[in-house]
Please model this.
Amino acid sequence: MSTVGLELRIPGYALEGLAGSGTYSKVYRARRESDGRRVAIKALDQDLVDYSQDLKYASDLQDIASPYIASLLEHGRTPDGTWFLVLEWAGVELYDWIETRGALGVADAYLAAYQATEGVRALQRARFFHLDISPGNLFADETGNISVCDFGMCVRIVGRARKLDGRPRGTPGFTAPEVMKGRAHIASDVFSLGASLHWMLTGKPPLGDDDGKKPRGIVPGLPEPAEWILQKALDPKPEGRFQTLAELSHHLKLALDGTWTRPSSRPTDRGSKRAPKSLWRRWIS
Model:
């Protein structure tokens, strides 16, 4: 757990309280003194600062503009040596938002997943994988609009796949299998977005909560668009998933608009007339 203390002082900002904490950092609610704007300040543990990719790539991340990304406003170092990042205030974690306001309906889940996908698309256009999409890193404002947050695990995109360093990444239950094995693929974030949609619709990730390895299978009775999108997004093999975030976004938008129709090619068995395997059978085959 981070050891950044409550005594933190950042010139130009008035801290209002602790919003959350993680392994490498603490996040504070604050206001910018010059204009009263509400912001989030991420203060990094000085002993673990080298692990934070959002500081490493801060200048590039600061240039990303999207209504579905919590914008990085500035970064720097306090007089006592603590590195920090100032981000747009994006609301509260989706976990907490739903706990307070109740479960999402199907249409709201499609919309939230669509907005999250558009946020990650903006990140990928800047040549980054996020690699830690989960309801804990999707924030909802007062109206329910979603912003993608926390870029501490992101890495540069180098081709369609790349090897990762040895440190743990992701959130159990939401992380793509290949990321758990130390590789990132262009479709790794697709998996995590699909897992987050599954959680929005069912209250559970598609993988076990304990170690994120045992698949639950897709819950029966979901609407056809949701079932098809989840089957495609959650393919255990990255090559079987949507190969672009634009494709996932397209299907979510059609589902949201009520105009989705099943594509002629099934998500797991292109050109075959056989029914697709269940998620569980696909994982163990």
Summary: Residues 209-215, 267-285 have pLDDT under 50 and may be disordered. The two ends are 38 Å apart (CA to CA). The longest strand covers residues 13-21. The CA atoms of residues 12 and 172 lie 37 Å apart.
